[in-house]
Amino acid sequence: MDVKSISDKLSVSPQIVLEDVEQLAELGFRSIICNRPDGEGADQPTFNEIASEAEKYGLEIRYLPVTAGKVSNEDTIGFSIAMRELPKPVMAYCRSGTRSATLWSLSQADKMSVPDILSAAKTAGYDMGGVVRRLTNGGKTPIDHADASFEVVIVGAGAAGVAVAASLKARQPELEIAIIDPADIHYYQPGWTMVGGGIFDAHETAKTMGSLIPKGVQWIKAAVAAFEPKDDVIILDGCRVVKYKRLIVCPGIKLDWNKIDGLVETLGKNGVTSNYRYDLAPYTWELVQKMSEGRVIFTQPPMPIKCAGAPQKAMYLSADAWLRRNVLNNIDIHFNNAGGVLFGVKDYVPALERYVQKYDATLNFFYNLVAVDGTAQKAWFDVSKPDTPVRRVEVDFDMIHVCPPQTAPDFIRVSPLADAKGWVDVDQTTLRHKTFENIWSLGDVMNAPNAKTAAAARIQAPIVAENVVADMNGKAPVAQYNGYGSCPLTVERGKVILAEFGYGGVLLPSFPKMLLDGTQPTRMAWLLKEKMLPPVYWKGMLRGREWLAKPQKLIVE
User: Fold this and answer.
1) Is 250 a residue of the active site?
2) Model pTM score
3) Could you give the 3-state DSSP secondary structure of residue 180?
4) What is residue 247's three-state secondary structure?
5) Element (DSSP H or E) covering residue 226
6) Which residue out of 34, 250, 307, 403 is catalytically annotated?
7) Which domains does the chain have, with CATH numbers?
8) From 239, 250, 403, 487, the catalytic residue
9) For 446-473, what is each residue's pLDDT tens digit?
C-alpha cells in the first residue's frame, strides 16, 4: 500500500486490498472513498468486499466510481460532498491514485490558488497539468478554444519583459506581440538602494505600466495561471486562453517574505525595514537619520537573489551617513550573511573589505535569518557553518534591514517549464528553453548561472530578440549570452565599485581600466549610477535603444 498525503484531511492511494484496511485503521484514517469502478481490473477486490472489511474496523466508506480519463463536473461535486460529510482523515483510492488526486484538485479550485493545488498534488507524486484549464474555471470543464492568439507572447512586464518587447518591435515593427502582466506600476528597482540611502526620492523609481508598454504591443492586464507548452497555450486567471507561436517568459522573482517567521507583521515598524520594497525603502532612510546609537543588523539570505550586492549596499550607505554625522562609533553594525563570502567574484572583495573595516562592521557568515519579533526587537538566525551542527542564535537589534529569501514565482515552479529547483530551464548561451524550442526566457526567473540584475536583463533582451527573429526566419540561434551582469556597489555617498562580470566570475568591464577601474571605488562610477543609469533604463533599455548592449554573435564550434 502506497498512501500519499495531499492535505491534512485527505490522502490518496493506488488500489488497496482487503489486508490494507486494518493498516489504514491503525494509521488513524476514519473513512475510505473508492473512486475505481468495480470490474475495471481482474485482480481488484469489489467495493462491497472492501466495505465489509472497513465495517470491521469502524471505518466509513463511500463508493464514487469514476471512469478513467473522464472526471465529470458531477463527479467533482460528489467528491466534495463526500469530503464534507465523512469523518476525517479520509483515504481515497483508484487504480493509481490519479483519479482521486484529480477529484481533490478540482474540488479545491474555488478554495485554493492554482499553484498551491498543483504544488500539493505534485508533492504527493501526481501531475495535475492536464486539468489546469478546469482549475482556473472553478473546477468546471471550460469551453476549449483560444480567446486570443499572437505571434509572440511575453509573460511579465518588468525590466526584462518591456525591454525584450521593445527590442523585438525595433527589429520587426509589424510583429503581433502581447505582453501579460497584472501590475499597474512599473518600478526601477535598482533605484531603491539609493532611496534607502537618501539619494533618490521613491516616486522617481515608479511609472505607470501603460506609459511604458511599447507602441503596437497589446497589454493583457491579467495573471498567468498555468502553461500548456505542448499546445502552445497560456491559461490566464478566469480560464481565458491565449495561444502563441513563440513565448518569452520573464515574470521576475518571488520575494518570499513569509518564509521568515514574524517578519510580515513587523515590516515598516519597530525598526524593521527593507530596500527590497518600494514602500519600505523610505523607512530605511528614516531609520538611518534617527539612529545615533545601538545595534544594526543587515541580512542576506541564501542565493539566488536579485542584485546580490544590494544587502551590503544598504549597509555601506547607512554607515557612511552615520560616519558623516559623527555617530558611527556609537553604532554596532553586523552583516549577517547566509553565504560564506562577502561577494561572489573575488576581484571585488579586497576593496569591499576595506570599507567593512572603515565602518567597523562585523561580518557573520553562514547566518540565515529565520524569525523576527519586531515588538521585542529580537531576531533569530540559523548558523550553518561547514562540518558543524546547525545552531540557532538570538540577537537583539535596534534596526534590522532584511533581504528576503527569493524563489521563482509559484506559477513557474509548478509548470512544465521549470527545472528541478523551479526556475525556467534554458540553454545558458541562447536562452532558449531546453525542451520547448519555441520558448525563451530572460531576467531573474531563468536558471542560467548569472547574476540576477537589471543590467543582465539589459544585455539579455537584444539577444533573445535576435534569436526569436532568427527562429521566425527559419534559422538557428545567432546571438549568445556570456553571463554578463553588473552590480554597482555603492560603498559611500559619492563612490561606487562597478562590478561587471560574466559566467564563472570572468570580469567583463564596459570601460578601459585607465578610464574606470571597476575593482576600485570611483567617483565616475558613482556618477554613472546616480546620473546616467536611470535615463539609460527609462529612455534606452525600455525603448529598444540598445546602448552598450549590442548582441554578441553566436560562435558555433
Assistant:
1) no
2) 0.84
3) strand
4) strand
5) strand 224-228
6) 307
7) 4-129 (3.90.190.10), 149-253+408-553 (3.50.50.60), 257-405 (3.50.50.60)
8) 487
9) 999 999 999 999 999 999 999 999 999 9
